[in-house]
Write a structure and sequence with these properties.
Helix content: over 70%
Strand order of the largest sheet: 1-2
Strand content: under 5%
Radius of gyration: 20 Å
Shape: globular
Distance between the termini: 23 Å
């Protein structure tokens, strides 16, 4: 396993995460508002569900490729370029008011290219660290990059414009160019004599046989169901309450994430993983409960808690897998996490939350307290499941601190 020994290597990993998150947020946070501004509100739920559908297909395939066939850095480069190209096509179709079904088809192609990126980049970074506990400070730069993308969109004044897609596409091209400065990891072992089951990465499903692995996968998946409503609908709620630069205000979510990420290294050294997960899940419940009060102050507090919940649950899950799964399965384990979270969780969430939002709309306006209150209830049920199911035991010495 390669180790991060030089400052130059550390800077490379930091830049990788920063640019990737900046590109992702510039598009993700503004997408819902762009669709609304161009008369495409009717397809919003399906547009976000495209990401979930893609997560069933491409992460495991490309994760297996990065484990066995092609150096992960090269996989990341070509996927970043494919993301930039398809994002430009989507933005052009929206700008010129093309048929909504063509726009949805292009969004699906974009999602297929984009879905594996976080898992692969995380596997690249983790493979170069001597200790997975070092991951949190580097992952912090992804949080700062996400904030930078939100602020960039608002500074450019393109919160509701298809131009936000062109800005994000440019950042993906920059990321692809930057990968040429990353030293490639060791070329994966030969793919000879592999079954199609293994070539498609489906053997990663065997990880679910382990009880604690299964609980972690299921917990993050279930939490993604209410979480999927955050970016499609929180900016709309902000604008309804009078916040004009919603994308910039959404960056408050990353303030608590910065604090949580900065604290995660210490927490991993002093707390059991179980208590870190529980703390993150509690923040998840409070995030929606405070939003349900539906005043400017409480909604902003709810938005702010999003980041702490995300870091303590989802980033800890990535570190958990790196500690508890053999290194030869690293990319596939992260890919399976992407499939479960962004696939199963988000697909149920985007479609279900689209229905739930419609059910909360009245002739007098959206019943935001009812909407967010329902999501707080779901998050509380996820917390109860984790408390009842997680044991924190496993097969190797690293499990003792879980």
């Amino acid at each position: 396993m390669l180790k991060t020994l030089r400052k130059a290597e550390y800077v490379e990993l930091v830049i990788l995460f920063f640019i990737q998150a900046m590109a992702a947020s510039a598009w993700t946070v503004s997408l819902g508002m762009v669709l609304d501004a161009h008369g495409l509100h009717a397809i919003k739920a399906l547009a976000f569900a495209a990401t979930a559908i893609a997560a069933f297909i491409s992460p495991l395939i490309f994760g297996a490729m990065a484990d066995r066939h092609v150096p992960p850095v090269r996989v990341l480069r070509w996927l970043a370029l494919a993301t930039a190209l398809t994002m430009s096509l989507v933005s052009t179709a929206i700008k010129f008011h093309c048929n909504q079904w063509l726009i949805l088809a292009l969004l699906q192609l974009l999602a297929l290219a984009n879905a594996p990126l976080t898992g692969i980049s995380s596997a690249i970074v983790l493979a170069r660290l001597a200790d997975s506990k070092e991951f949190a400070p580097i992952r912090l730069m992804m949080t700062l990059g996400w904030m930078a993308g939100c602020v960039l969109v608002s500074l450019l004044g393109v919160d509701t414009s298809a131009l936000s897609g062109y800005a994000a596409a440019t950042l993906w091209v920059i990321l692809a160019a930057f990968t040429f400065f990353l030293p490639p990891l060791e070329v994966p072992k030969s793919a000879e004599n592999l079954s199609w089951h293994e070539r498609l990465g489906l053997d990663a499903l065997t990880l679910l046989k382990n009880r604690d692995h299964r609980v972690i996968f299921f917990t993050t998946t279930l939490l993604n169901i209410p979480l999927s409503a955050f970016y499609p609908y929180a900016p709309t709620n902000l604008r309804n309450l009078g916040f004009t630069h919603a994308s910039a205000w959404m960056a408050l979510a990353q303030v608590s994430e910065v604090i949580a990420m900065a604290s995660l290294g210490w927490l991993l050294g002093n707390w059991r993983l179980k208590w870190i997960f529980i703390c993150g899940l509690i923040f998840g419940v409070l995030r929606f409960a405070f939003s349900a009060i539906n005043t400017k102050t409480w909604l902003l507090i709810g938005v702010g808690l999003h980041g702490a919940s995300y870091a303590l649950v989802f980033v800890t899950a990535q570190i958990y897998l790196d500690q508890r799964v053999e290194s030869s399965w690293r990319a596939r384990a992260q890919a399976l996490l992407t499939l479960m979270n962004n696939g199963v969780g988000y697909l149920i969430g985007y479609l279900g939350m689209g229905w739930w939002f419609a059910a909360c709309v009245r002739p007098t306006g959206t019943q935001w307290s009812l909407f967010w209150g329902g999501l707080a209830t779901i998050a509380a049920m996820v917390l109860i499941y984790f408390l009842a199911a997680y044991r924190g035991t496993g097969a190797n010495s690293q499990n003792q601190s879980a």
